[in-house]
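Following the same procedure, sequence and fold were stored together, as reproduced here.

>
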Amino acid sequence: MNLSNLKNIGNLFEKIKNIDYKRSNLVKLSVLIITITVLFFMIPSYKNIESKYEVGAIWSSEDLIAPFSFPVYKDESEYEQEKKDVIRNIAMVFDKVNTNTDKLSDSLDDLKYQFQNIFRKADELVKNKDGYINSEKLDADKQDLRIDFTFPEWEKLYSLHSNQNPDLNFNEFYKYLTNEILSNADKDIINIDKNKITSKRITVQIKDEKLQELSELDKIIDKNELLNNYENKFRNRFGDSLLVSSAVKISGNLTPENLIYNNTLTEKETQSRIEQIPKTIGIVKENERIISKHDPVNRFTKMKLDSYKKVRLEKIGMQDLILQYVGKFFTVFILMLILIFFLYYIRKDVFNDNFKLMIISSMILIVGFIAFLSMSIDLKLPIELLIFVPVASILLTIIFDSRLSFYTVTIICFLVAAIRGGDYSIAFISFCGSVLAIFSERDIKNRSQIFRSFLFILIGYTFSILAVNLIRIEDYQKLWVKLMFGGINAVMSPVIAFGLLIFYEKVFKITTDLTLLELSDFNHPLLKELSSKAPGTFHHSIIMGNLSEAAAEAIGANQILARVGCYYHDIGKISKPMYFIENQLDENNKHNELNPNVSTKIIIAHVRDGIELAKKYKLPQEIIDFIPMHHGTTLVSYFYDKAKNSSKEEIPDHIYRYPGPKPQTKETGIVMLADSIEACTRAIEDPTPKKLESKIREVIRSRFMEGEFDECDLTLRDLTRIKDSFMKVLIGIHHHRIKYPDSNQLELVSNSAKK
């Protein structure tokens, strides 16, 4: 890589570094492209034909005529139910194993011989006093039996051998068992739990023969059922529980299962039966009317519409595919273009701020993604009612205003409908709940009031769900489920909005009206320090706040921002409060002994000190801007004139000017005027409305001619309205009061009245 390439790369990085991300058109375009692209891929393909249809809905489009013949497929749930019925009623296949009674008889004889051998060895152990029946010397022989007897059971069997029971010996016991086992050898015994068989019959596969079906399940038994039969018989014959349990174990061990489940043949038979289930229930011929306009969509009509959609999608070609993509793109693009026009022509301040555009874009994408998930999750529940559109309406109202929120939420509802495949009923329901949420948050005063939107959202969702349900004539069970999900949305939306508001405030460093209201609390540490160290400045700031709030209301600016900006505009005076006239309690002015240049530096320094204090207390940038902008680049005229009069040389005025910047917003421009006018009118002796108006005009004209409003949006009409609003407030402050007579005059008047 040569030197010129490195230099080009360096220049590129330098350009990227110098991009104004807040106002760059490139960033705006990137936000738009990302938003449109993500939404484009969220909109499903092939989901909608002419409109959304459900059973009970009214077909609002024109008559739908079949352009080609197609079969009517069964409803998917109906077909699945038929498959379940086939699986449930299938005759499970078992392989028949013939029982060899001679072999079984030999096994019984072998077992008896093993018992006798164990008993003989036990007799020798007992005779030699060398152990008992449970001696380790017999363990190997007992294990060869492969029957897990307990010690009490062994003792009971040994007692039969040793003739300890006069009514029964071991030979009689074993003979009875042998007869029972051989008598059951010809029964059909399956090797699985009978309760697992859901049909009323089974299929028996006999070796070298064709399949034979047993008509009744009652003709077969399983091992558990056989052992229960044995237990009942042995209890009647022997009575003793240990003998019964021993006999059951012996019988269960020797009785063979002669019907063995064949999973392979059963699966094959099941699949064959499923393939025989018809998937269609009719045919729609070419040019046949599928449904007429204003007809209700019934169950069969819905199957025809679903079948038409399915066949149509199978026939779709590349050209149709491209057209669908174009339609998806235009759907998103048109809705976003409408929103852009609104922001550009009506909310230019938002349009020019890329960070605010990112906030709006992120909310659109979050709600769109939830709508996309609701389509992806296959649940038989109305999860579309958990698309939290009211969250966006609450946040947009708090961060911006109700007007922008209403407009944006309308766009979001249409996008949700598009992502849901044309489900405009959910758009209607979401719109109703979200708009009421906007009304509930218009005059929010603190964060906890976010939760009052719960009731408004609940009302919106409840009545809109009822309206849609009555149109579609849905059953009451579905209605209650939908109302429950609407209630969940109403509860969760304020909670989610509360959490996301903190996230947006931190990440995008935005200042909401809620933040401003919290800063307007006089218990804020910075305001408490200002009121204690610079009470005159604090009082001046409060009066300025009243003036600025009235002026902001008159011209449509942010009243709360203007008022709170006044509270903090002079916090830099905390460091040296006695160098400012409003905080001097006596006539000893500290500037009398200072050089005008030094005094000017002290006065101007309060701007720098104020910015440092504001950053220390982490005030929002919107409030910090008031500190330098309320002075702009104005001249510290008192000390400038003093310097000129005391010096024969020409004094440059830039030394005596504030560093700026000039006001950039209407609110900072208003505060600049309020600051000057409040100070000037306070010095007027015997203030009359005429004197007040003259002074206000003078200050406004002076600031206008100096070019201090060149960088903000204040118009001449705005300045006139500001002047009028200032007049109303100042007349109320400086109104003339009645002069009451002193005590001597009151006594004279009282005596005259008595005469």
About this structure: The first strand starts at residue 64 and ends at 65.
